[in-house]
Amino acid sequence: MKHKRTRLRMDRVLLLAGSVLLLLFLAVMAVCAVFFSDTGPRPTAAGQGSDTTRNQAGKTQRVSVTATGDILLEEPLLNTFGSGSWQDCLADIDPLLAADDLTIANMEVPIGGEELGITGIDYSFNAPARTAQNLKDHSIEFVSLANNHAADRGTQGILNTRRNLDEAEIGHTGTFGSQEERNQTNVVTVNGMDIAIVSWTYDTNQPYDQEWQVNSFYSPDSAQSQVLLEDVRRARSQADAVIVCMHWGTEFTYGLNDAQRILGPQIAQAGADVIIGNHPHTIQPAEWIETDGRKTLCLW
What is the pLDDT of residue 61? Predict the structure, then answer.
């Protein structure tokens, strides 16, 4: 059977300004992107239709997506949680996370588990295995793993993180178990809409064994940046909506660095509908990037 394809209409994107919450370790930027799609061709990277197959119901589809900041478990928080359970520490924002169709977080700490040593100091982190279940308990369904702490516990930490997330049924991308997995587009289907999620980081604090293990672009003019853009183009051809999670920028600053300024428009041009930035630990600007008649919401 031919796969149904729909045309994405970014009719509304709600930025819940004023609802920015910092609750312990979880900074919820409260970015609630509302995607609409109706029957018609799926857009390509250039915004042109590629298929005219109509869905059976012929109805508009609606998907709301909430994005969070960095989940970063440092020593004081690990001591607070004791056995590893977050318990009710997110009670104030749980209704927000539960009300959407999909919540995406940046998992800034490997979930390597107790076997690799739990630590939240010296910028080399590792969280209890229970952390993955905590995500599910608080309605976080998907995490971006490409960030500078991805390799803090080496290859085994990457593998353990992926395993613990899989066991908790949490979707993830940005780190991989094989070259074949890295070359595949991660697509989640929500309310009948296919949403591709792409995740990249500027680099990692610790080295890793194989280049395919972590999506790292290094610099805007690197060969890996071209791989990043190709990932976005492929995602555009395979999904109704494309979300790109970028670990970039300069920590503790409010302005953009060169990598953001150069890669942001290129990612938009390649076909992203929304770019979710993290890493600076500050609230940087949000704006529309217009390319070829398309508008991409970029949360720097």
Answer: 81
